[in-house]
Amino acid sequence: LTVIERDPRLSAFLATNLPSRVRVLTADALTVRLPAARHFAGNLPFRGATEILLRLLGSGMEAGVFLVQEEVADRLAASAGSREYGRLTVRFALEGRFSPGRQVPSSAFYPPPRVRGRVLVWEREHPTLPRPLEGCLEKLLAGAFAHRRKMLGGTLPGVLRAWGGSPRERPERLLAQANWPEDWPRRRAEEIPPEAYRSLAERLAEAPGPSG
């Protein structure tokens, strides 16, 4: 068992009070070399929690239990069509599933924050995304969710044309090849399921990269 704690005082306390078989590292979870593990648990800082979770996802995390800010938990466990559904929801959903657990009141922390926490359980259901596909997916999601209130018909074609200066009809052809719903121009980004974004990213991974 390896414990990572950034605060030197808490790290020293843990090293003194935990069994000798537990290795305690005084380090930042965002920069430290992660242990070769597949199961993780943590009380994550409310600032930086998503970045830490993305690192763990990239390391091949199979399962985990975390305490995060309630708003973050709502986004990560959201369903397509909900207000909380966004880029992070799609990214994690393509590899597994977050299930929200019990709510933790602000009074459980010291000093108490202004927001509540929530337990979040992660289970992997699909293999880690290949790096080239992950890069295309990130750029696609950034463009699709950049204007959440607008219909995709007015925003997505411009994002797709950036892949190599494609002709005007190419975005529609790419979307048809990716089996997107025919009414996608009248939908918003949060109404498209994760699998559709992956299918489109796979087509884009075969095309020239975004210009500029």
UniProtKB/TrEMBL annotation:
Annotated TM spans:
none
Keyword Methyltransferase attached:
yes
Extract the PROSITE patterns matched here: SAM_RNA_A_N6_MT
Which SMART domains does the annotation name? Answer: rADc
Q: Could you say which EC number(s) this protein's record lists?
A: 2.1.1.-
Q: Taking every annotated instance into account, which residue ranges of this chain make up the domain Ribosomal RNA adenine methylase transferase N-terminal?
A: 1-126
GO cellular component entries: cytosol
| Coiled-coil blocks | none
Write out the GO MF terms: RNA binding; rRNA (adenine-N6,N6-)-dimethyltransferase activity
Keyword annotations: Methyltransferase, RNA-binding, S-adenosyl-L-methionine, Transferase
Which SUPFAM superfamilies is this protein grouped with? Answer: S-adenosyl-L-methionine-dependent methyltransferases (SSF53335)
Q: Which PANTHER family match?
A: DIMETHYLADENOSINE TRANSFERASE, DIMETHYLADENOSINE TRANSFERASE-RELATED
Q: What is this protein called?
A: Ribosomal RNA adenine methylase transferase
**Organism of this sequence:** mine drainage metagenome
